[in-house]
Amino acid sequence: MNMRTQFFWILCLGVLLTACGSGDPGSDSVSKPVHGVEAEPEPEKGPHRGRLLKDGDFILELAIFETGVPPEFRVWVTERGQPVKPEDVELTVKLIRLGDRVDNIGFKPQDDFLRGDTVIYEPHSFVVSIEAVHNGKTHRWQYDNFEGRTKIGHEVAEAFGLETLIAGPAVLHETVTVYGRIMTNTERVREVSARFDGVIQSVSASIGDTVRKGQPLAKVESNESLKSYTIKAPISGVITQRDANSGEQTGGRQLFTITDTSSVWVDLSVFPADRARVVAGAPVTITPATSGPSIESTIDRVNVVAQANQAVTARVVLDNPDGQFLPGTYVTAEVIVGTHLVPLAVKRTGLQAFRDFTPGVDRGTRRPGPGHALRQRKQLSRQSRHRKVRRIARPLRLHHVGIHHQLFITTTIPRSGIHTAAGGPGCVELYPVTD
Questions:
Q1: Domain ranges, residue 389
Q2: Among 218, 178, 162, which Cα is nearest to 194's?
Q3: Could you tell me if residue 7 is inside a domain?
Q4: pLDDT at 161
Q5: Residue 310 contacts residue 272 (beta carbons within 8 Å)
Q6: Rounded distance, CA 95 to CA 110, Å?
Q7: CB 150 within 8 A of CB 373
Q8: What span, in angstroms and rounded, lies between the C-alpha atoms of 102 and 269?
Q9: Can you give the pTM of this predicted structure?
Q10: What per-residue confidence (pLDDT) applies to 41?
Q11: What is the pLDDT of residues 120-155, one digit of tens each?
Q12: Angle ∠(182,183,187) on CA atoms, nearest 5
């Protein structure tokens, strides 16, 4: 491993350690130091492991609770060291998320604490604004709770070639994967026999020979007229079967088979789950199992008779002028069964899963500061294997999306600057993955 690669993975490990933590909105979730960057001090905690917020003798402990319930805020209040009854406090909390989306959380008394009425969904990355009213006095606090943010220096981004593309409208193709084989196009096969039975005097073509239409194949002496005549090739193609040797009687048998390989069939097996969607005229991309280039075509026809395995045959007719597709070769095919115009699409190589979330992207217009990376919830609504792009569920503003080093990146400053990273339905994340 060279020094450059080693440095990259050390950086990514630092990102993982700082960005993948669960994060507690009751406390600051700031990045740990990477390459000499100082960490912010840990906030003071209360007896319930929540963050302590002080205004003189008035102290509020804000904690997130998720044992047996979805994440929610719980608050305990004291004044001059004595507990304050929950019903004596009017409390509101605002969570300002990326894109200036605000979650307003109200509270109701329960036992000795105030319980939030809203689930705190992932990611727990937002500005927290708190207002508490007690005995006619208003107390306010605000702080940043940024989970999963990190910074990438401009030099580092340039060194590792982090590149971006514009995410925008696109046409997505919904596909079905099917399998099959390349077959001889029987409409391009000719079986050749002697018109008049007789003795074969000479044979000028062998198996594997390429012949032209009208080219002599054999010479036969007729048993009736005792005159010789020439058997000629009825089409251009390849001799794929020969049963003729000098001195033999033709005996009414087939002497040659000529196959025109400039056209072949691809017979694809379509199973019941996909029968209704795979129809004649559907675009298809075919890739031979033996490697080699893929070719695009259309489904020519779909058989109406099921085979023993309950699959029906969808047939593709391929031009094969160079003979690159050999009959008998297995293939994989992607059949386009639906087309969807979407407002925002991202290449699949630019998406990164985070925990158990589906990949997604930054949905807001308010972005973290230059060089920051942030996880942001965004649910995917559609994906396409054929074009390797995925659709984001709702229309978004256009962002620059990273495509290299398996990183999903949205820009935070002009294109020449640093980028943020994204991941998913709840999160945006920056870290490498293996292929």
A1: 151-170+340-421
A2: 218
A3: no
A4: 74
A5: yes
A6: 22
A7: yes
A8: 52
A9: 0.52
A10: 74
A11: 988 788 899 999 999 999 999 999 988 765 566 778
A12: 140
